[in-house]
Design a protein that fits this description.
WH-like_DNA-bd_sf; two-stranded antiparallel ribbon; 7 helices; Arc Repressor Mutant, subunit A
């Protein structure tokens, strides 16, 4: 049973995710944001005019986490919410401050990506990413 647990895909994935999020949060902490907030800022920039619930689905963020993080980002002056012209969907856009911050965060993220993948071959990193995306889409 011990071997079965130590080889469990779920438990190992959760452990890997916690480690990666912890490292990402540490990188973003000086900027006052978390990995989830970085992901949300990037989703808003790269999907302009997209309703917030659609953004949440793209980045695998549940409704409660989405609302909490949007509230925090809005209080920090990084995003602003507006009613969509069609229907009652809500959309968000980055403020000037949010856009400037995201540019900084993207540079930090690129550095972190390089450091995280050190020690892995390109094939190993590609395989991990392919499997992670496959599991996320199931």
């Amino acid at each position: 049973m011990r071997d079965a647990l130590s080889n469990c895909l779920v438990l190992n994935t959760v452990a890997a995710a916690r480690t990666l999020v912890r490292k990402g949060d540490a990188r973003f902490k000086p900027f006052g944001v978390t990995v989830q907030q970085f992901s949300l800022l990037a989703a808003i920039r790269f999907n302009p005019g997209e309703p917030v619930m659609s953004l949440a689905q793209k980045i695998q963020l549940d409704r409660t986490s989405l609302t909490r993080n949007l509230d925090l980002l809005e209080r920090k002056g990084l995003v602003q919410r507006a009613a969509d012209a069609v229907g009652n969907a809500r959309i968000c856009e980055l403020t000037k401050e949010g856009s400037v911050l995201l540019d900084q965060l993207l540079r930090v993220w690129q550095q972190a990506q390089s450091e995280i993948s050190q020690g892995f071959t390109e094939d190993e990193a590609d395989t991990y990413l392919r499997l992670a995306k496959d599991f996320a889409d199931r």
